[in-house]
Amino acid sequence: KKHVHVEAKGRKGGQPCDESILLACRQIPKVELHAHLNGSVRPQTIREILEERSAAGEALPVTELQLKDITACGDRSLADCFRLFDLIHAITTTHAALSRIAAEVVRDFAEDRVVYLELRTTPKARPEYGMTKESYIKAVLDGIEFALSQQPGQQPCDTTSKDLSSPSRPGRGDGAPKGKVDGREAAGCTLGVMAPRMDGCCGVALSPADGPAAVTSDDSADGITDGVGIIVKLLLSIDRREDAAAALETVQLAARYKCRGVVGVDLSGNPYVGSWASWSEALAVARAAGLGVTLHAGEVYTPFETAAMLAFRPDRLGHCCRLDRELAEALRSSAIPLELCLTSNVLTQSVPSYPEHHFAELYVAGHPVVLCTDDSGVFGTTLSREYAIAATAFGLSMSALMELSRKSVEYTFANEQEKQRLRSIMDRASATT
Ligand code: 6MZ
User: Fold this and answer.
1) Can 299 be counted among the known catalytic residues?
2) Is the CB of 37 under 6 A from ligand 1?
3) Which residues pair with 234 in a beta bridge?
4) Is 135 in the pocket of ligand 1 (CB under 6 A)?
5) What pTM was estimated for this model as a whole?
6) How many Cβ atoms from other residues are within 10 Å of residue 75's Cβ?
């Protein structure tokens, strides 16, 4: 494809894209398929949660030095990343914190003109905070739904409207996130009122709040004010530290919460930990339950495991940085769509530099690829920035990036009606790019 020049100018770390390219990428309606909730938390929110806990007289779970490490973006080894995630997890321990960060992450992606977001998170039981895996999921969904209900063009939060929610939705109407979201008080606002539903169940769509992403024309057929909007879905992650029973519990919860927008499961976590045999059965159960399955594969060189993952034929794979020639060929012939995270892979040294990222080779070969952020908070990036890096490192034109985004719609776990809506958003944007 004539747009690709793999010898281009990207460099490791730093800011390998210029402002004008970044601004142009912000105008592209985008699809985010690989974003971890606790990796996408704003550094400022981490600080505020700690301040609140300190003001409440709690002993803080991290030192000043560790806090600096969490909130500074930059090169870190994969092992350091996982130490960092443990620290973040020690901070985002409460239902209120989870709801808050979920709401803010949705808002951040919407403002970056992401029109479809599949957010993923690992449900965690924390008995000391009265949290079960199920209550964790509900808190995250509450946060997502709260963010959606707050967007312009939506009905206002209304504590009298609980009965409008579908009776088939478990846990509805049990309260908005307590405390602050985006610096605004969220407590007391009931989540019974939702954005217009896309599929008679949990699909939600709304308009981005403001910024260059906002489109003001009212051309939607389904009552959404600006015709662009964001659709948000949730994937539940199995952490590689979990055993077969814990993995199955997560899958069962994912199936139970399909009615609130859970569309799939992910396998992630420290790639040096655990073994495929522990999770493969649970993942097969997920597939049988009609959930999408995506796996982190080949983030480090684990050829036997990567081969087993390819043989499982998941709906999507993440990373696939370290494949030998045989595995690379197996991946190509599988045509399994790949979620690629440029900044994450370069900063963690899973790939040596942007120009050497396997995106280029796969893109040229016509393999289905989607650009994603991975952990926008930890790596200090946005999806627009990932697009801008691709433009700079591989010489992709804006229309090539637009086409990349348009194709990403086909790899989502959205239903056909939602895909249709996304296709029309992409078609309209393509006409002007
Ligand atoms: C593998 C990753 C990851 O689930 O608590 N996670 N797993 N590779 C990566 N590359 C950098 N980045 C994030 O979000 C944080 C969790 O997502 C997974 C890890 O399991 C991490 O603990 P949640 O919301």
Assistant:
1) yes
2) yes
3) 119, 262
4) no
5) 0.85
6) 13
